[in-house]
Amino acid sequence: MKVTVSLIKADVGSLAGHHIVHPKQIEAARENLKLAVETGLITDFYVFNCGDDLELLITHNKGEDNPEIHGLAWNTFKIVTDNVSKPMKLYAAGQDLLSDAFSGNIRGLGPGVAEMEFEERPSEPIIVFAADKTEPGAFNLPLFRVFADPFNTAGLIIDPRLHKGFSFTVLDVLEGLKVTLNCPEEMYDLLALLGTTGRYVIYKIYSREGLIAASCSTTRLSLIAGRYVGKDDPVCIVRTQSGLPAVGEVLEAFAFPHLVAGWMRGSHYGPLMPVSLKEAKCTRFDGPPRVVALGFQLNNGKLIGPADLFDDPAFDYTRMKVMEIADYMRRHGPFMPARLGPDEMEYTTLPQVLEKLKDRFEKVK
Ligand code: F6R
Ligand code: MG
Ligand code: MG
C-alpha cells in the first residue's frame, strides 16, 4: 500500500507579534484533524509549530495534490483563524490565507506544501523540517550537502546503495519552470543554479532508481500575491536510512549555520539556527531564522514519534556560532550584504525616498 506524507503550513497569526503560535491554535488544528482520522479521510497527523508558522503533518492514501487533503488543510487553517486567531486578536490573524475561496489545490493560495507518495519500506524513518524567518531556498545548501557532498554524507562513498548519487529536480520559481539534474555528473551545473537561492529551489530529490528521497515546499508568497506579503517559511520531508542518507548524515548538514534570507521584515540575511521545538520561537531582531527537525517512524501510515532531533547538546556549538555570526551581521545595520538587495526586500522605502529626492538629483558632468 502506498502512503502519502503531506506537510502543509501557514502563518495564521501568532502571539507577541510574529513570535510564536499560541497553544490554543495547535489545539484547534488537532481537533479538526482528529475528526478527519475518525471519518477515515486521513491515517494520522501531527501538529506543531516553528515560530509563527503552524505545521500540519498528515499521512493518508490519496496521493499528492489531492483536493480532499488540501481542502482539509485549508479548512483547518480557516477554523484556527476564525475560532482562535481572530477572537484572541492574535497578531496577523489569517495572514497566509490569501484567497477567500478554496478551489481544489492549496498551492498558490498562500500555505506552503511539501508532499511525497511512496511504498512504505519494512522500516521507514523520515525527518520533517520546518523553518521560520526564511525562504524555500534556505534548504538548497543543506540538501545539496546531504545528497551530493561526500564530505557531508559518508554513504555516498562507502555505501554501494548510495554510490550512484541522486537526481535533483530544481524549480525556477520566477519563471515557473523545472529541470532535473543528476549528481555527481552534473554537480557543477546543479550548483550554478542552487547558489541563486531566491530563484532556483530544490523541489524533489530522487535516488537514481527513481525512489523519492526528499520533497520541499517551493511557493513564494511574493509572487502569489503580486507583491511581497511575507516570507514563505519553508518545510521539507526527507526519507532516510537503508540506501538513503542516514539520519545523522541528514542532520550533519545543519551543523554549519549558513546564511539565509528572511530575517527581520523578510529583508535581512541571518544564520540558520537548528533548534528544538521548545526553542522554535524567534526573538532577537525577530530571529535569528530557525529550523526544527522531527524524526518519525511510519507504521502503516501511522506516525510513531516525534523525536525532536535538534534537542541535543551536539548542536550547542552550532547555536553558539549562530549567535557570533548574528552579532557580526547585525553590526552592518542597514548595509548590504546584511540587508537584502533592493529586489528581494519585503519592506522598502526606496521608491518614496527616490520620489522625494527626484528634483534634487543633478546630472554629473
Ligand atoms: C519576518 C517577520 C517579521 C516582521 C516584522 C514586522 O518574516 O515576520 O520580522 O516582518 O516583525 O512586522 P509588521 O509589519 O507586521 O509589524
Ligand atoms: Mg507572522
Ligand atoms: Mg513565519
Q: Can you put this structure into words, describing what you see?
A:
With 365 residues, the protein is of the alpha+beta class. It is 26% helix and 27% strand. The strands form three sheets. Strands 5, 6, 7, 8, 9, 10, 13, 14 and 15 form a nine-stranded mixed sheet that branches. The chain has a four-stranded antiparallel sheet with strand order 2-3-1-4, covered by helices on one side. Helix 1 packs antiparallel against helix 2. One magnesium ion binds next to loops.
Brief characterization of the structure:
The chain is α+β, with helices and mostly antiparallel strands and 365 residues long.
Share of helix, binned: 25-40%
Termini distance? 74 Å
Form type:
globular
- Low-confidence runs of at least 5 consecutive residues: none
Largest sheet: 9 strands, mixed
Would you report the number of β strands?
15
Could you tell me the strand content as a percent range?
Answer: 25-35%
* Count of helical regions: 10
Helix and strand string, N-terminal first?
EHEEHEEHHEEHEEHEHEHEEEEHH
The average pLDDT is 95
* Structural class by helix and strand composition: alpha+beta
User: Ligands in the structure?
Assistant: fructose -6-phosphate, magnesium ion
State Rg. Answer: 20 Å
